[in-house]
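Sorry, can you check?
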Amino acid sequence: MEKAEYRKHFELEENFWWFRGRRDILRNILLPRLKQDKKLTLLDAGCGTGYNLKFFEALGTAYGCDFSEDALGFCRLRGLKKLARADIQKPPFKDRSFDFIALLDVLYHKNIKNDVEVLREINRLLKNGGFLLLSDSALKILSGRHDLAFHARERYRKKTLKARLERAGFSLVRGSYFNFFLFPVVLTIRLMENLAPPRNKAIQSDLQAVHPQLNAILYAILRLEAFLCRHINLPLGSSIVCLAKKRHSNVL
């Protein structure tokens, strides 16, 4: 990720419509599967600027790791302490340390040389029957400048992620696209951007503050999707979320 994007994340992550909506979707997919009476140990792998880690702290003892010292600096500004600078391709944690691991918009990064190997490492860190909550960018047709700013390697299809999760020793519990209702808008914007030459050499993502009323409307749309995701998997969207469970007979 470009350094300027970390600051935008830090400033917008709490209230920006997309981040709030994604948290609602993640919550509605994850919570019905977790044992609420159990003290959980969690890891946010690739925790970025840390607001999601604060969200996970309500579920148990939550740790975060990220390779970027810039990201960890913003985490510390949020008061987070259970942090480690680490490459998720070689996470410095013991086998079967966690009940639940989040991997949110991390796996697609260009520095990930082999995403199946990363998923196998995540599998190693989970206790038997533990869960992986994964979100990422979806569908190659939406590739554009946003992906360049975030140093993306690829955008996923659900069947691609399912196959790679299974190769890494997981069973897919839920798999859904999201940002379904806004997909035509996102597609149109990306296609127009790719047809028009950039106005300057600076690489910037789509992450920009919007008017509060528009922010509220866009959040309401994703909140509706979060409600739907309690019951169904959405067939299309600019992002994808998967909940996977570690198989007891681990394939490494």
